[in-house]
Design goal:
By secondary structure, the protein is mostly beta strands. Helix content is about 5%, strand content about 60%.
Amino acid sequence: MQMIKKIIFLLIISVTVVTNAQETSGSVYSFYGLGDLKHRGTHDITNMGGLSVLKDSMSLNILNPASYANLKLTTFTIGGTSKFTNQSDALSSDSQNRTSYDYLAVGIPMGKAGAAFGLMPYSAVGYKIQKNSLEADGVTERANQYVGSGNINRIFMGGAYNVLKGLNAGLNISYNFGEVTNKNTAFISGVQFPTRELNTSYIKGVSYDVGLMYDTKIGKSYNLYGSFNYTPSSTLDSENSRSIATIIYGATGTEFVNDELYINVSNSTLHIPATTVMAVGIGKTNKWMFGGQLTAIDNSKTTNRFSNNLNASYKNGQRITIGGFFIPKYDSFTSYLSRVTYSAGLRFENSGLVINNQDVKDFGINFGLGLPLGLSKINVGFEYGQQGTTTNGLVQEDYYSVRVGFSFADKWFRKRKID
């Protein structure tokens, strides 16, 4: 009964988080495709640059469902990030910050099997772009302001089984849903009221991913780790609506609709790209681990939510990750710092998005601390990254992220000696 109450409580938290979800991106590149992808894993994974090669007994690896079969304790994990971004182009710069939740999940051990369920944002849209130009007459000035917001959230559940000694297989099934709004406001010199085009997409669809994880001994002291994860391409249904209106701004900047016209637009289909992840690592149990990971992303079917002249195209993307951790002495009784997990990682990514014939790339340096609290842990992480470039009219984003995550582990299924 206590276990059921805990699960109900966690489900209530999940629903509350979804209900209050806000935009979690400040990137101008969230204008394109499905937005800014947020599915990066728990913070003990992101602190290693996203390296997800380990199947731990007390930490939940939500990037590869095969890891669930190694759980020995029921695990509840939650995390969030504050991200500070400086955006610059050839003429100007701007800065902003966002704070968002990253994941909420529960893992349950079942002997040689394991299960997990949870909630996370899959992608987010949050941008504000200003574009100034002249009309065809060469005299009339025009300014277009593009603003977008929204999320695609993901509820997932999955299971895994220990097929052979050292080999696990797992499956996740996810339901993706959310609402994304894109607003284009045109200000034209000599025209009294600006014109606003408002596009809204209600997005939903199912996806899944499968995983394998393997580890074996090398000699007496070392372990070899390997993992494979595959997400097939899947489709999301987008129910679209559009309205055009003239608007008036109040003294405080509040927007009032003057005349509004609703226009029928076709619904569309969006694609979650097929993704293949392969990783290898070597390490010593409860001491250290180092590894590398290659991710291949098939962006050939990626499209924008609304087909505008964006001067953008898509090609296959890649991500290379190297990282690891070190624990000075995990069972030290005299030094707390010796029991801390010290992690670091590098991430190099070509997103597959091409704007003005320029590839949009992303680079990140990560490091973090895993602070033990008995069987539980607090993960604190830091990242410096750079996305985009100022070449060919693009925007360069330099960002700093601070992450905090909590992982609570306990044995929920205790047999009572006295009823």
